[in-house]
Amino acid sequence: MDYFTVGPSQLYPIVPTTIQRALKDGITSISHRDQKYITLHKETVSNLKILLSIPSTHSIFFLSSGTEAMERIIQNTVQLHSHHLVNGSFSDRFYQTAVELGKKPTKTEVTYGASFDWNHIQIPSGTELICATHNETSTGVMVPLRKLYDLKRSSKTPLLALDTVSSMPYVDVDYSQVDMTFFSVQKGFGMPAGLGVLIVSEQALEHSAGSYHSFASLSTYANKYQTPETPNVLAIYTLNEVVKDMLKKGIKSIRQDIDKKSDMIAAYIKSSTTYDYLVTELHDRSKTIHVLKVKGGSARSIKLLELKGFAVSSGYGDMKADFIRISNFPSHKVKDIKNLLKNM
Amino acid sequence: MDYFTVGPSQLYPIVPTTIQRALKDGITSISHRDQKYITLHKETVSNLKILLSIPSTHSIFFLSSGTEAMERIIQNTVQLHSHHLVNGSFSDRFYQTAVELGKKPTKTEVTYGASFDWNHIQIPSGTELICATHNETSTGVMVPLRKLYDLKRSSKTPLLALDTVSSMPYVDVDYSQVDMTFFSVQKGFGMPAGLGVLIVSEQALEHSAGSYHSFASLSTYANKYQTPETPNVLAIYTLNEVVKDMLKKGIKSIRQDIDKKSDMIAAYIKSSTTYDYLVTELHDRSKTIHVLKVKGGSARSIKLLELKGFAVSSGYGDMKADFIRISNFPSHKVKDIKNLLKNM
Q: Within an 8 Å CB–CB cutoff, is residue A303 touching chain B?
């Protein structure tokens, strides 16, 4: 089966052999306080910083999921007032996380499938943190980062948090503008689920709350190239190998490939009488997550593709019956996308 | 290398082939909302309940580590007053977790290496939860469960939480007496780290606080055989296979094997002039974690064993220089222990 699901998705090509080697070499038995682990942790952080151009001032923390990252961001940096840009189910979950943690969050919400009216977003005074989702996995809307940077600056909000769960490593973040960026590895990095990555600025690190995953605790251990708890060592090892492979290919080339494959999908959809984009505005459309309305409903289309060996995701939530979602990650080759489109 | 480290430790024999099969069969690419995942989740919970005799009234939640389990227990069930039995670094971490979360915990603390004076433990009135560590991985002290059950009853404390991180599945818990029991899979289950398991009673489930890992949220998803976030699906798949293999062997036989191997280690230490137990009282000694003082310091002993192909753990914290720790888990065969002892 070829997986074009939105995550977990197709494994990055080197993942199976990497995991086999880790098992053979006893990586899964080493202690997370051992020098071997420390060397691995240090190398992984260093390679990630090179690949994504993360400045040395920023810290990288390993968590267990993107969902955990949302919780830790709110818990550590918000006393009461976060403001959320909500345009889909995952940005809404970020908002709900703040509600559940007893904060008083506010939000700017738009119809699912639309983007924001950037000139009219009101950030309440006293807002401590703006939370935004770069790439809404539920709707396939990608927001322009420059508008977010401007919003932070013009509203004089101290902190900005960015969900890049389904756009990393495609997205080119200016980390001098963003205080917390997070992703999980089962999407753009093509790995098994079970690891979240949180990139934190010095400004954000001035805040801390909670127990073992307070920023203070995470930072104390990160400075020793360790984690407070026993981490998912196998995933950290695998991530390091995937990032090394991506460094060999070059991030520019990986991003260009995604643009190219995205254009191929868009061209096909334009000519199709069965499929059409949920997102009507071309400049709002995600390159990595294509959300498509299916004439006659999604169930038959998903079933037919499955019989031909292609797994795609159904629409999210209320859109389940009418939409499908297709991912376009570094794991997908041009010929894979060609093959999929030929069979759609 | 043969790993007698206290966790991560030796892989359970079927783990490497199980992970290879999971990768080949696309388990790491399936969605955690898909029927295939739901079937896997349901089967894993069901097999764990059979293996460990967990009553149907109890829920099983998948978390990311034992450390997370400590945090979620305090966060969800304690308003202010937990009481902790502290006899080592991990029971102390449980206590510290409550402090860090802003609670007002109390504790009964004994010298590391000793157990408790059960007739004189005072549980303050108003205590909501007693927290105890069945098997202290830092000191090798195992406490008698019946004393804990009695303590809960006599003190009329509503809830009891039990850390079985390094004693499960050896420990035979009476779940009608314990409200929250947790372990992680890199010890007695011989798996790569990155999954914690929390077993929760109906009484404990009446409490809830937090966001995606509040008991309410965990329970809502567990009832659908799912998790709130994308979980470590590879680990859940592997756990299910390990538990199935253990069911084939029979839990009684697994526990008897651990007793037998523990007796072999004890007999060797008794005759040794180099090694001696930290724990002087025979009935307090752990069967799964053997903490041994080394004449002349631990460094040379660890190095020599490593050269012969045996990895053991150093002493924990302050005991690093003088002690070693040896694990005795289901992954270790009788002949492995014989081999290790012959080379000590």
A: no
